[in-house]
Task: structure prediction
Amino acid sequence: MASATRVPGGAVEIRPVATRADVKPFWRAALKAQGHEPNYAPPLLKETYDVLTPRVTPFARENEGQAWVAFRGGEPVGRIYAVKHNAHLAKYHDATGHFGFLEAVDDDPVWDALFAVAADFLRSHGLSRVTGPFSASVNHECGLLVEGYETPSTTHTNFAPPYYARQLARLGFRPIKDIVGYEGSIAESQLPSRVAAVRARWSGSDDLKLRRAQGPNAARELNEVYNDAWSVNWGSAPVSYEEAKFLAELAQQIVPPDWTTLADWRGEPIGVLCMAPDLNEAVHDLGGKLMPFGWAKLIWRLKVSGVSRVRVPIIGVRRAWRGTRVGAMAAAVLLADAIEKARKAGCRRLEVSWMLEDNRSILNLVRSMPAEKTKVWRIFEKEI
Result:
């Protein structure tokens, strides 16, 4: 078991997350850093346990990662996670590790100590460069918020005050990629009717069908389409089937069963879209805790009263269909279908994120909702 790391002077102490009991201080560090921010939604303690208890998740078992908490005066004031992501290294061979789950008060020694221990860990695993934030990989929460501080974060996207980016710059990190979020009014969107009109005139309409992703093969189908569709994107790394099953099980707790959709072309799944209600909106006043009454409030808000916003974190088509009429129609029909489902659920706003800043085809489709850019998240790098 790793021992605690003390910074010279004893002002800051860094402790590893080595047991389930260490997860709660890790969670509390986020509340200490951002609990006062009006557009920040405290993470659920249960979900933090689900994903950060050491060696529990498929991702943790498949990779070499470590989380730490920074303490001052016995109180958690910061946290970080570093990982040697084996799927990334197998694809890119670039000696690069990742950092993520980053939260800290605006205090230079805290940030220095967190990144010092993370860099030491990555160097000890033969790595010479670090990129992030990825919590815990490019397939999870990505990037640091650098534009859009004035609007609340949506489910499984991070909120970060401006000083986070300033601290990374002070530590020598350089920006390498921006990913964006667009948001539009569901009631005002004419995309479903426009897509329906185009599809009615299209000779291939009968060969393109949508279906709910369900049944014993759903996770495998989703994973295969996702890995293929994202394989040529910047920074992409494949998701294992075991991790895909784990993520699907987590999503089932909050996502209506017909909000994860596959597009089939002549019986072959070629496209996928996943949409989720804005969990952050539903839990913003729960302080991250579901007990004793938080569960009831959460279920009521998700299942009965509903939420005003939804998020589409995944929309894409397989590589072979990119740049084709079939692929374009599949993406358009998937998004139009999502808008209709969100409208039926009484939701008012739809966010699509994260999209690469240079992914013109999907950006053009989303803009046609219409939707406007509301957030930018940035990924950084540094030699270690």
The radius of gyration is 21 Å. Confidence is low (pLDDT under 50) at residues 1-9. The longest helix spans residues 325-344.
